[in-house]
Every structure is written in C-alpha cells, then in structure tokens.
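Morning F.,

Quick status update on the modeling queue. The single chain you submitted on Monday has been processed. Sequence for confirmation:
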Amino acid sequence: MKLVRALISVTFGAFPALAGGQATEIYKCVDGAGRLTYTSDKRDTADKKYKKCQLVSREINVVPGQKPNTGKPTTAGRELGRFPRETPAQAATAKGRQREILQKELESEQSALTRAKQELSAQEQVRTGNEQNYARVEERLRPFKDNIETHEKNIEALRRELSNLR
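Structure tokens below.
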C-alpha cells in the first residue's frame, strides 16, 4: 500500500513539471522580534525561530509550448509570397502622386525664397541711427540671410528627390 501511495505522489508531483507549469508558494513568517520574512521554501516555515507562518500566495507559472515546425518558410507568422504585392500600375500611380506633391512643395519653396529675398533687400535699405558700425547691420540682417539659406537648401533637396523619381 505504501508503494502505491509513493507512486501516486511521485506521479502527481511530477505532473505540473511535465505539463510545463510550476507552482510557487510564498509564505509570510514573523520571527520572535516581530520582523516579517517572506520565503518560498517550505522548510523555513517549520524553523523554530519563526512564530507564525502563513501562505500568502500560490501561483502557477506556465511556459507556453512551442509550435511544431511545419517546414514552410515563414516571416513574422506569414508564409513567404502570400503577403499583398503592389501591381506595376499601382506603383506608377503612387510615383505620379509623389512627383506631384514634390513639385507643389518645390513651387511653394521657390515662392518663399523670392519673398525672403525681397524682405532681405527691404531690410538692407533701412538704416537706423544706432547702427554706426557694420557689425550691427550684419547682426540685424543675419536672420533674413539664414531664412534665404534654409529655403535654398530645401529647394536643392526637393530637386534631388525629383531627380531620384525619374
């Protein structure tokens, strides 16, 4: 009879490990000085230095099993070759829309550059009484020149993108 009980306890004790799960029991114990100790070792709860031990939580940790390999190549859960593809007509339409957008942006940058140059020339004509040396004039005109430089770089980048589309 003892042999049967031993086999049963071994069988049921090993079952969670075979199933991929493991039970974790956390105990809260109080020692003679009133300090709390948390442990997962059942032997610590039987120790004489702890007055009172109680089970706080019992969790079962389960590791998900791996899916069997079917031999088919996959990428991110999809079979290769089955994801949506773009037709040549759709690609041409998309490039046409992209070209139109870039041309509109180029035109707006060119008009902004023209306005910035006009603002700079208007500011160059203005002389105030406190600008007796040329460094102060340059300091006042620096934001206008920087604005022109920014628009010129944007135009250059847009032209480069347009040339890459063709």
